[in-house]
Write a structure and sequence with these properties.
- The protein has 7 helices and 7 strands; from the N terminus they run αβαβαβββαβαβαα.
- With about 200 residues, it is α/β, with parallel strands linked by helices.
- A 5-stranded parallel sheet has the order 1-2-3-6-7. It has a two-stranded antiparallel ribbon with strand order 4-5.
- Helix 1 runs parallel beside helix 2 and helix 3 crosses helix 4.
- It is globular and about 45 Å long.
- The N and C termini lie far apart (about 55 Å).
- About 30% of the residues are buried.
Length: about 200
């Protein structure tokens, strides 16, 4: 049912999108992450490829798989290799960090103050500034091992200088979200800072 649900939703989104993000790593759904379930990912990416093949080349859209920052390098390499081997255009590094996998010292907030979000008693994922260093490491690792693969940076991006750092490492685009909560006109300001970095 999960596979059918993914493919049905994809078939609806694909024709009307600029690009499609396959979220196989979100810790906020109340279900297990899928970016280490290799047989499932193979079936999912194969099904996606079959749906895309039914469209004319001029109607095809880019497809990205969004991965979790909580993977070790061996798992990350295997997962990225799987996406590339099934025609996925690129990867998004990264999703929010699963609370249960957060490194020691990552957060200052006491555990008892963090709200339980999912039906199975988990606290969801952490976003924002602490993720940025892992995004840089992930982008550097993936571009070194898969130089032709498209990569989008995501996680903790707050400034134009960070945008330039990721661009220099090889990202084709970057996503921001959390910064919009606490920085006025974040996207516009970050883009201007980025241009200032290029001109300095």
């Amino acid at each position: 049912e999960r596979l059918d649900d993914f493919l049905y939703t994809f078939s609806l989104a694909y024709p009307v999108s600029r690009y499609v993000e396959i979220n196989i790593s979100c810790p906020n759904t109340g279900e297990e992450r899928l970016d280490s379930k290799y047989e499932f990912m193979q079936a999912l990416f194969k099904g996606i490829q079959e749906i895309r093949d039914n469209f004319k080349l001029s109607k095809r859209r880019a497809v990205y798989a969004k991965l979790s920052p909580g993977s070790d390098k061996a798992n990350l390499e295997r997962t990225v290799g799987l996406t590339q081997g099934h025609g996925i255009n690129g990867v998004i590094l990264f999703n929010t960090w699963p609370y249960e996998m957060i490194p020691l010292g990552f957060l200052m907030t006491p555990e008892e103050e963090i709200t339980i979000l999912t039906a199975d008693g988990k606290r969801g994922g952490v976003s924002g500034p602490p993720l940025y260093r892992y995004v840089k490491e992930g982008v550097r690792f993936v571009k070194r091992n898969f130089p032709t693969l498209s990569v989008l940076g995501c996680g903790g991006i707050e400034t134009g200088r960070q945008l330039k750092e990721l661009s220099d490492l090889g990202t084709d685009a970057d996503e921001i979200l959390t910064v919009n909560i606490y920085r006025w006109k974040a996207a516009k300001t970050i883009c201007q800072e980025y241009l200032n970095c290029l001109n300095s």
